[in-house]
Amino acid sequence: MVDGAGPLRILRSVIIPQALPAIVAVGLFQFFFSWNDFMGPLIYLAGNADRYPVSLGVNYFTFTLQQGGTNGPGFWRRVRSSPSRAGGGLLRSATILHARHRVLGC
User: Fold this and answer.
1) Which residue in 3, 29, 40, 48 has the fewest CB atoms around it within 10 Å?
2) Whether 39 contacts 59, CB under 8 Å
3) Sign of the CA dihedral with 92 first, then 98, 99, and 101 last
4) 5 Cβ partners below 8 Å, 6+ apart?
5) Domain ranges of the chain
């Protein structure tokens, strides 16, 4: 015991605040690994196109549009913008969370 604090209080007040940057870094690495995974969902979700994650969805979108022809006026614009649309929500949410963290001063 340190100054009358029990093990849970030490964990909550001392250890977790010191380890928080490492916990966040590991969480981000794991999230981006899962976000960019291509082969795992391709193997496990074969035949379930409605459950594809973003990486497979963009590939499916591009392949489907290429097979249907490129005769639309904005075809390549849609193909090029699909990855940025897919990742846009992630970037927006990260920006909002970062701004909230800076304002609160946590």
Assistant:
1) 3
2) no
3) positive
4) 13
5) 1-36, 39-106
SS3 5: strand
Residues 69, 71: Cα–Cα separation, whole Å: 6
What pLDDT shows up at residue 90?
72
pLDDT of residue 26: 92
Half-sphere exposure of 74 (CA within 13 A, CB side): 4
Mean pLDDT by 10 residues, the chain (106 residues): 82 90 88 80 82 76 65 64 69 75 63
Q: What is the pLDDT of residue 100?
A: 67
pTM beyond 0.70: no
The structure tokens 């249907």 sit at 68
DSSP assignment of 57-98, as one string?
Answer: HHHHHHHHHHHH-S-STTHHHHHHHHHHHHHHHHHHHHHHHH
